[in-house]
Known about the structure:
Blueprint: E1 14-17, E2 21-24, E3 30-31, E4 40-43, E5 46-48, E6 54-56, E7 59-62, H1 68-80, H2 84-97, H3 102-113, H4 118-124, H5 137-144, H6 147-163, E8 177-180, E9 183-186, E10 198-200, E11 207-208, E12 221-223, E13 230-231, E14 244-246, E15 253-254, E16 266-269, H7 274-281, E17 285-288, H8 292-330, H9 338-358
Parallel strand pairs: 9-11, 10-12, 11-13, 13-15, 14-16, 16-17
Antiparallel strand pairs: 1-2, 2-3, 4-7, 5-6, 8-9
Helix pairs in contact: 1-2, 1-3, 2-3, 3-5, 8-9
Amino acid sequence: MAAKLQCEICGGKLVGKPGGIFECDSCGTEYSTEWAKAKIQEITGTVKVDGTVEVTGKVQVENGGPTALSLIKRGIQTLEDRNWREAESIFNRALEIDPESGDAFWGLYLCKKEWGSMREALQQVSDCVVLEDDRGYFRRARQYAKGQLAGHIARLEQLWRQEDQSELLPEEMRQDFVVLKGVLWFVGEPDRRKTIRTVKIPYGVTEIGRGAFCGFDGLKEVTIPESVKRIGPSAFKNCRELSSLVIPDSVTFIEPYTFDGCRKLTLYGNAGSYAEQFAKTNWLLFSTLKTQEEILAEQAAKKAEAKRKAERRAKREELNEEKDRLQAEILTLKGLFAGRRRKEIEARFQQINAELKELE
């Protein structure tokens, strides 16, 4: 009875092609004559392959498998179907055959980003905080890329740089943050989340990105500028030492659970603002900022108080100088009228001391 060669990827039938190539009639995976080198199978009898190839007798095949190129083709099809787990497995098999396959590394990078194609990568790059990934797939894809892939990766990097606005950041923030299309992202080492105490977000940032300050245990002060409109999910999660945060009126959207774990936090904002509504809806402490009229009145009161203090200080100096003059005069008093003048001076001393006490 005739046996049929089967595809190791999907189990489909292999069809003979010119040049000694076999192709799966189901998934299109190609097998070369070199697939006989990996493991040993023995097929006895007559083996029929649909097409023009027929092998009769006993055939010894030393362990076979698809080519790296064929696997990459299959992996790309699987990516387009958005089956990330299967695609990752296929690209890893391709790397077993060709450890320097830029296409295979690029496929693994797309799997990690959950992008189904190069076109989708180019479309989604503006949402990519950093191009690198923790497994180094992007770096090795760029290292080994050739031809069209190298051009695509270069284009991707160019588009990403066009979105970079990190020049908005002060020098001390550039080690840990980037700004892409107005969104602030944290890209520093994880340990840096434990050491940063104060952050002043620069004007021009329009959104605080997902988890930007998540886990900043020692963060005590954050300044949010009027340019910020949105605060992303978990942006301030577990900022346990953050006790106050002023939300400007420019902020019109805050993701739920943004402040989870902020045990000491009180939000500050204007009465009737989105910040106040958000705080009430999410059971957060909220305190109303002073109105402009209240701020001006408070400033005027402070100026008046400072003026009064200056006047009292000047009056005290004047009275003390008079006491010194009268004290010196007492030492010079002589004759019949000395007693009368001394009594006048003593009475004035009592009056001066009373005035000084009032000025304390």
